[in-house]
Amino acid sequence: MTNDELVLRTATDDDYTELEAHIHGAFLDDVDEDTADLNRLVFEPDRTQLMTDGGSIIGSGLVITRDMSVPGAVVPAAHVTGVGVATTHRRRGVLTALMNAMLTEAHGRGTEPFAVLWASEGAIYGRYGYGLASSRVSYEVSVRDTAVVGALPDGAQLRRAVTRDVLDVIAPLYDRVRAVRPGLSSRPGKWWEYLTADPKGWRRGMTAERTVLFEDDGGVRGYARYRAKAGWGDTGPDGEIRITELLAETPEAHAALWRFLTTIDLVRTVRYNHGPVDDPLPHLVTNPDGLIGSADSALWVRILDVPGALTARRYAAPVDVVLEVTDGSFAGNAGRWRLTVSPSSADVARTDAEADLALDVRALGSLYLGGVSAATLAAGGLVTERTPGAVARVATAFGWHRAPVTVEVF
Q1: Is 5 among the annotated ligand-binding positions?
Q2: Whole-model pTM?
Q3: Which of the residues 114, 125, 260, 398 is marked catalytic?
Q4: Quick one: pLDDT at residue 1?
Q5: Which CATH architecture describes the domain 6-129?
Q6: Whole-angstrom Cα distance, residue 267 to residue 293?
Q7: What is the Cα–Cα distance from 62 to 10, expressed in whole angstroms?
Q8: Where are the domains of the chain?
Q9: Is 399 known as a binding-site position?
Q10: Binding positions for acetyl-CoA (predicted)?
């Protein structure tokens, strides 16, 4: 086959079954009959790009329409997922064609100033203008070696429930936390139904998902979704808890949820893969060495509209700076931009003034969620300071008091 026989097109509903098999195969998996139709709940064929060869799907890239929290705001973002190329068609430009098509479609809408994705292989997406914008901490807690001390506050209680039965209270709580914590995605339409479907194929040998709620006089202030797995070793019980999602809007709720999860009978290990880098957990436990915490890459951000993105978010401090941005894909992003931030607004305009900082669109994506410092990027040679002191001013302004966190892999 030659590249002349490859066809790039938008998906239709009729492509779903073949697309599902293609994506699973690209990620070295098989389609599970019990879960195959669940992805239909959030499938957007008109935003899905396919590459076919002889009519068969050999490449895919999906965009999901969701908002994402950024420092001080909630902004529409193109959520990219399901990117895969058949091993028979590698190094033929398929991935580049798919990525360009998705980014061009999102850019053309004019409503999504940035795109965001999780990268299964981090070496891939920088060449398409994505910058690593956040990290996550995976915790393994040995409950024999450490503990979260304290007791429930007066008037507070914990309540266990089936997740689906308490969506009316945890969904609003999620939205309240999302409004103040960068990196969280909206869950419109059937997203809650999809995320809490809980088929056996998603359990990986563990129990059905359970939820524990923290309630006080103000109502439900935190929740944790989790699964359990029994185990027995030579010294007795060796059970495990895997946390699906833990969100709290008060320190009391956060501590109480972790205390509950680490004191369940017969459990020796608690695991959670989506902790923020500023999680207070290491400071709450009696022995931080009882935690194994490993940081991994999380979200990658691709700025599609420089002025739109920079005016959408808020800043930690006023700043007046000229940024010289390079972008090999979207000429409208390239050039010098003056960013003027006051306590109440941010303005961006083209300028002929000398640049204070020079950076690629990838570095701008890394800065965007407030989780990566301009000083860090400058130390790595990814930001060039043209005016002395500009890096420090930009690092302060673009920073945020809460690190970005993302509690699901989309």
Answers
A1: no
A2: 0.95
A3: 125
A4: 44
A5: 3-Layer(aba) Sandwich (3.40)
A6: 19
A7: 10
A8: 6-129, 137-296, 305-398
A9: no
A10: 83-85, 91-96, 120-121
